[in-house]
Amino acid sequence: MQVNRKLTNQESGSNLSSPQGQDIARLEKKVSELIEAIEQADVDTHLSKHYQKEIADAFQRSAATQKKLAPFRELDQDNNLSREELLEGLEKLLAENQFDSRINTPKRSGIVQRGVMFVLAILLIIVGFAMIIMPAPPSFELFTVYYFNINDGVTIMDLVSLLIIFGGVLLFVLNFNKK
What we know:
By secondary structure, the chain is mainly α. The protein has six helices and two strands. A two-stranded antiparallel ribbon has the order 1-2.
């Protein structure tokens, strides 16, 4: 079995001049290291299925990435286009295909980030209500927008507090609405 792997490594190492060939050679090296590690490890069935699923997901993400980048490679292969035509083609492709530089990064759950955003949203809501409920000194109350009676009304500080509450609610909703 090791002889077959060494033969395939020697055959694949002949076309290393292109960047794609280098990527394939690096992948083959890592796969052979992975195979050796699996052969030496004592892994139960549940864990092996979990690893198989992770590897299959990685190959699916790679295929999806290649599919998304294929129109850009086709545009790059066309040597008969002027710079303006290339620019127009690139502009059209970027408008049609929405992705960013994080296309190859693995998806992480971001539990810590969601937790921090949750705490921040709750704090904003509490601070906004506290600003409305707690009395403020007259110098801090700016202008009264609407009077209920001579001594009480809606001030600009109350409106700012409502904006803070709205920001906290919006942050709360957007935090749990992410896909």
